[in-house]
Amino acid sequence: MSKDRTTHKKRSFIEELTKQQVLEIDACTQCGECLRHCPVQEVSGNLSISPPEKIRMFREFIRATEGLKNWLFGRDVDQKLLEDFTRAVFECTTCGSCSQNCPVGIYTQRLWPVLRKEMVKRGLGPLGQQAEMPAVIEKTGNPYNKPPDQRFSPWFPEGVAISEQADIAYYAGCTGSYEAYPMVRGDVLVLSSIGSPFTTLPPEEEVCCGFPLFITGQHDLLEKLVKRLVNAYQERGVKTLLCSCPCCVNIMVRDWPVFYGKKLPFSIRHITQFVSDALKKGALVITSELNQRVIYHDPCYLSRGVGIMEEPRTILNSIPGITLLEFDRHGLDSRCCGAGGAARKVFQENAMAMGRLTIDEAVSKKADKLILSCPACYEKVNDAMKGHDNQIQIVDIMELLADLIEGCNQ
């Protein structure tokens, strides 16, 4: 037996868990309430990868290995069970629906990434393409292995003034920059229309926020990435950092201070918060009408992640003529579109099926447009619509606003 493998066997299953998370794992009653809300269950029906089964398995790992007797005599968990658990926890989209609907309040949206980290430490995860991300991000600054100097070039609008120093900075993020051009282009056009000076980092300097690594349990590069970005924005005098990607905003708010080692020198805001304020203050006025029915999808890491739900609706309701529809499940109970938790990189069939459920409901409610505010949603739902029976126009909220602003100025 190799020294590395022996180290894994001696490793405690609660090493990465907080005291609260140890209590949460023990608190699960296996009631199954979460099964009615889990998107993976909805499209797969596979109870062996369900939230309560994952918790039950991990609880058994703890019970089988903790205590002096187990430590001394080296009792271990069957390798096949560990591999099955690893697949189950990485197939999850980490959407947080199970957490939102858990009768005993288990905070699974934060628990699943920790359990993934434990499996990575044991050499069992991550899965497939997920394992390539650290090397790719270290080399290119993004998880898509795209040229760093082309981060902005395909989409950044001409004529938009970028300040060297400013109170406000805009972070585009990797998925927006490389996979959802209309979204980030809309962000910049709307910010330019508001008129407040803002800065960005050069394309080679705006590296990954770290969320893909965090969510897959691969933490080695996180401190380096976070300090690089925070210090770069601090040097530009930034007091507010804006971003439209919910996953980026989530890790910035919740985890950047941890990896930075202290309070951030600036605040983090989702772009809809900034734009909603601008509309209320009169700094942005929409006069072009949109006589259409639109339906808005709440991203998991924007609604359940950081609690931003009203601002996107404030923006949409500010558009003259618009009729805003709601999904049956919206706000804190919104259904995952299938793109979350880096699961789409491995479990494409699940992601496509979830995306099509979103499309189908939007079409059934006779919406003219499906409005999104997440680049991962934008990428995956557009992908899911290819070859699908139901079709609908998919538009990012800032893309929509930018088009209307352009109409106002013509």
Task: Give the SSE layout.
Blueprint: H1 3-10, H2 19-27, H3 39-44, H4 51-65, H5 68-73, H6 79-91, H7 97-100, H8 108-121, H9 133-140, E1 168-171, H10 174-179, H11 181-194, E2 198-199, H12 211-215, H13 222-235, E3 240-243, H14 246-254, H15 256-260, E4 267-270, H16 271-281, E5 293-296, H17 300-303, H18 310-317, E6 323-326, H19 348-364, E7 369-372, H20 375-385, E8 393-396, H21 397-409
Parallel strand pairs: 1-2, 1-3, 3-4, 5-6, 5-7, 7-8
Helix pairs in contact: 6-8, 11-21, 16-18, 19-20
Describe this structure in words.
This protein has 410 residues and is an alpha/beta fold. It has three domains: 3-125, Fumarate Reductase Iron-sulfur Protein, Chain B, domain 2 (Orthogonal Bundle); 130-276, 3-Layer(aba) Sandwich (Rossmann fold), CATH 3.40.50; 286-409, Rossmann fold, CATH 3.40.50.11810. The chain is 49% helix and 7% strand. The strands form two sheets. It has a four-stranded parallel beta sheet, sandwiched between helices. The chain has a four-stranded parallel beta sheet with strand order 6-5-7-8. Helix 6 crosses helix 8, helix 16 packs across helix 18 (310-317) and helix 19 crosses helix 20 (375-385). The longest helix is centred in the C-terminal third of the chain and has 17 residues, at 348-364. The radius of gyration is 22 Å and the shape is globular.
